[in-house]
Amino acid sequence: MQLKEIIKEFEDLVPKQIEWEKDNCGLQIGDPESEIKKILLCLEINNTIIQEAKETKSDLIFSHHPFIFHPIKSINLQTNQGTIIQKLINYNINLYSAHTNFDKYKEGINYTIGELLNLKNIKPLIVDDEYFYKIVTFAPENATEKIINALSIVGAGKFGNYSNCSFQSKGEGSFKGNENSNPYIGEKGELTKVTEIKIEMIFPKWKQRDIINALRQNHPYEEPAFDIIPLKNKIPEYGYGIIGELENEIEASNFLTNLKKILSIPILKVAGNIEKKIKRIAFLGGSGASYIDYAITKNADIFITADLSYHNYFDYKDKIIIVDAGHYETEILGLNALHKVLSKILKDKVEIIKTKYITNPIIYF
């Protein structure tokens, strides 16, 4: 399977366009035309991961953290970055990264932890500022079904668990073509009135080019009329973190003991009353200090994340239980979600393996 096909299938589910504006998701190094037979999943790339990819004959390394995050001004082969780039090219290994876009994906890293914690009613902690657009067009009745199907295929009319959603209303359209026109209905130079169907469908803003192209290719009119309208409706399936509920209340101390087992971590950094009973759990893998207030607003009893500062514990210990469970530890299990997503879309066409190495630079001494 070609790399460009894998990228298209993956980004149809996990769009690159929903990444944090300062992030750098997507193809890092490689040839989109290359054939991929095996994918190696990892949290971040280093020389050990490259050697593992070479030994396992993996054509593609699929990492969570982008290797190229800041613009590269030079490739110095005496540096670690330069060495990695050189090895990837020499070994014909491609590198792709899905970072904050996979963080936001409804079945991504955070969702995996929610499932392991047996949370119910899991929802995004905060739905990000990704908005719907709407396309409105007008077509003769006999072309309506074809247009709706074509727009649906490229991503219009999808909302949550529903697809092919549209609204249709009947009206009368009128037009008069000049001598250079080639009207589908009526004659050039004559005013024509025809019964038309008004079609309305929503779509994510990054699909606009595909939507317009599909409309023009499938509409019978020489010059189809359409409106593109930006909406204020947020897309509910993309957001940072998750919040859900335990089936029953449990003492926070017992919950934290179980959390350590799930994350395979010997210690947690915690502030707040760990003797109280909790039920509503918020989680955000990686650096999530800026989202503590959202957890409080959503009435979470406890918020689990990483990279908290000393002052975070002071500021919030009387408002909510906050837990720093480690950056690596709160994200590494997300490789299970990545494996699941890729397996679903690739359907055994490509072998997928997870790294056997721990890339966490932190040790507990």
Describe the global form. Answer: globular
Mean pLDDT: 94
Number of strands: 15
Name of the CATH architecture of the largest domain: 3-Layer(aba) Sandwich
Task: List the topology elements.
Elements: H1 3-13, E1 26-29, E2 38-42, H2 47-55, E3 60-63, H3 80-90, E4 94-97, H4 100-104, H5 109-116, E5 120-127, E6 131-140, H6 144-153, E7 167-175, E8 192-204, H7 208-218, E9 226-234, E10 239-251, H8 252-263, E11 269-271, E12 277-287, H9 292-297, E13 302-306, H10 310-316, E14 321-324, H11 327-331, H12 334-346, E15 351-354
Parallel strand pairs: 2-3, 2-15, 3-4, 12-13, 13-14
Antiparallel strand pairs: 1-4, 5-10, 6-8, 6-9, 7-8, 10-12, 11-14
Helix pairs in contact: 5-12, 6-7
Characterization of this structure:
This protein is an alpha/beta fold and 365 residues long. It folds into 3 domains: 118 residues, 3-Layer(aba) Sandwich (Udp-n-acetylmuramoylalanyl-d-glutamate--2,6- Diaminopimelate Ligase, Chain: A, domain 1), CATH 3.40.1390; 118 residues, 3-Layer(aba) Sandwich (Udp-n-acetylmuramoylalanyl-d-glutamate--2,6- Diaminopimelate Ligase, Chain: A, domain 1), CATH 3.40.1390.30; 104 residues, Alpha-Beta Plaits (2-Layer Sandwich). The chain has a 6-stranded mixed beta sheet with strand order 5-10-12-13-14-11, with helices on both faces. α6 packs antiparallel against α7. The longest helix is centred in the C-terminal third of the chain and has 13 residues. It is globular. The mean pLDDT is 94.
